[in-house]
Amino acid sequence: MVYSGFPFMFRTFLVAASCLASSFAASETIVGAGSTFVYPAIARWAELYKAKTTHTINYQSVGSGAGIRQIKEKTIDFGASDKPLTAEELEKAGLTQFPVIIGGVVPVVNIPGIKPGELKLTGEVLAKIFLGNIKKWNEKAITELNPTLQLPDLPIQVVHRADGSGTTFLFTYYLSQVSPEWKSAVGADSSVSWKVGMGGKGNEGVTAYTQRIKGSIAYVEYAYAKRSQSGNQIAHVSLKNASGAFIQPDDSTFSAAAANANWAKTPNFYEILTNQPGNNSWPITGATFVLMYKQPGNVQKSRVIVDFFNWALKSGQAEATKLEFVPLPTPLVNLVESSWKKNINLPATTETSPSK
């Protein structure tokens, strides 16, 4: 542990951990990279934070896999991933991780005449579609779930991520939980060997493909699906959850799934929130984790990063909610703050933070 438990040291750390460069340092430019899942929230937070502090958070939406690789290679200041790293991975790379936001991955379709939330699917049927075993929208496995819909005799066009992706990890982890066939044939990871379909880069690229291709199906973070549905090309599906209920994705169903997590008893915040019990739990819920160096090469930049996320978790949650994300509950925010104290070596300072 880097800091002692004495009250004076703890108070000093809180000043340091919540401290940016203040009067003694010029504005910093911080480079982060990774998850496209969390990009809408970080981009909005960065905009507001710069207006308040003049510090720039340059976050690159390149996918969780690239974010993990770049933080391990020490080419960025922080990474972000929807796939949490194991204790062994963190230790080997000299990293710590903490959650910053909760959201949902949703299957989306482009089927003429189908509106958001109308099409019902189960995890088993979803797996068969992405395995290429169900090839048309009017096949029996789908029509039996949707007897009131007029589904067209239209080929299914699968769209998936082409890059290493935490969104892919959550999606494939869920499919591995509900489909033994998927688990043995493909498995769960941020990059997998897809059996069918075409790849798009990032949530942005997958969304763009799905908007253009009739008969397509894909999986994207909910904020992307919600924005895209205004043009009526994309419709999210209603998905059957672990309790047998067909539900819609929204912040309440993401919150219901996340309520099952026991963060206080989970080392390194390693929690995967897919296929959780509860009548109102969305089946493909997940958190985004920020990755930081335990021993920063640039202490001042690490202070800025901690201050940025401290501000985001306490003052930026209303903006995240507007983007269909779920804020972390206060007890979890407190655990995250404690993790900074224990895991990030930030020498004490008596400066105060301009973001306060």
Question: Helix and strand layout, with pairings?
Answer:
Blueprint: H1 7-17, E1 29-34, H2 39-53, E2 56-61, H3 64-72, E3 78-81, H4 87-93, E4 95-110, E5 120-121, H5 123-131, H6 140-143, E6 157-161, H7 166-178, H8 180-185, E7 198-200, H9 202-212, E8 216-221, H10 222-228, E9 235-236, E10 238-240, E11 246-247, H11 251-258, E12 285-293, H12 299-315, H13 317-322, H14 330-343
Parallel strand pairs: 1-2, 1-3, 5-10, 6-7, 6-8
Antiparallel strand pairs: 3-12, 4-8, 4-9, 4-12, 10-11
Describe the structure concisely for a colleague:
The chain has 356 residues and is of the alpha/beta class. The chain has helices at residues 7-17, 39-53, 64-72, 87-93, 123-131, 140-143, 166-178, 180-185, 202-212, 222-228, 251-258, 299-315, 317-322, 330-343; strands at 29-34, 56-61, 78-81, 95-110, 120-121, 157-161, 198-200, 216-221, 235-236, 238-240, 246-247, 285-293. The strands form two sheets. Strands 1, 2, 3, 4, 6, 7, 8, 9 and 12 form a nine-stranded mixed beta sheet that branches.
Overview of the structural elements:
Strand 10 (238-240) and strand 11 (246-247) form a beta hairpin. The chain has helices at 7-17, 39-53, 64-72, 87-93, 123-131, 140-143, 166-178, 180-185, 202-212, 222-228, 251-258, 299-315, 317-322, 330-343; strands at 29-34, 56-61, 78-81, 95-110, 120-121, 157-161, 198-200, 216-221, 235-236, 238-240, 246-247, 285-293. The strands form two sheets. Strands 1, 2, 3, 4, 6, 7, 8, 9 and 12 form a nine-stranded mixed sheet that branches. Helices cover 38% and strands 18% of the residues. The chain has 356 residues and is an alpha/beta fold.
